[in-house]
Amino acid sequence: MILVTWEQVVAIDQNGVITSYEVLYEPAQTFNGRLTSSVLVPVTAPTMNVTLRSLEEFLLYDVRVRANTSVGAGPFTDILSITTLPARKLVGVCVCVCVGGDVCVCVGGDVCMCV
Questions:
Q1: Under a CB-based contact definition with an 8 Å cutoff, are residues 86 and 101 in contact?
Q2: Is residue 41 packed enough to be buried (19+ CB in 10 Å), middle (13-18) or exposed (0-12)?
Q3: In a 3-state reduction of DSSP, which class is residue 21?
Q4: Is the pTM of this model over 0.90?
């Protein structure tokens, strides 16, 4: 499980009212020699987080987020890469997509914030 959290796009960069977000994730490598496909998860605004489940353990995933408005889809964020832990030990992994030079800080369990 990976909890992905992001901040709202700065108003000047929104190009309209944000109606939804899309979280794109995919393994950064092949899994057991098999090619894997990416998964696009829709998130209705104003929600700004999603939990990615049913992931393979010990696998590096690339995660990106973008906002959508009535005008269309915005650009994806830079790729964030994270390796999943063994399922039996996983209590939550926090990933933030911060803007404006902020840094993601995990504040306990799967709770994170941009500072």
A1: no
A2: middle
A3: strand
A4: no
CA-based nearest residue to 90, from 63, 65, 56: 56
Tokens 């902020």 label which residue?
102
What tokens were used for 48? 């700004």
pLDDT in tens, 19-35: 999 999 998 876 566 66
Domain range spanning residue 41?
Answer: 2-114
Count the Cβ atoms, other than its own, within 10 Å of residue 75: 9
Phi-psi region of 91 (alpha: psi -120 to 50; beta: other; left: phi over 0): alpha
**Cis amide bond preceding 46, omega within 30:** yes
CATH of the domain at 80: 2.60.40.10
Euclidean distance between CA atoms 78 and 62, whole angstroms: 10
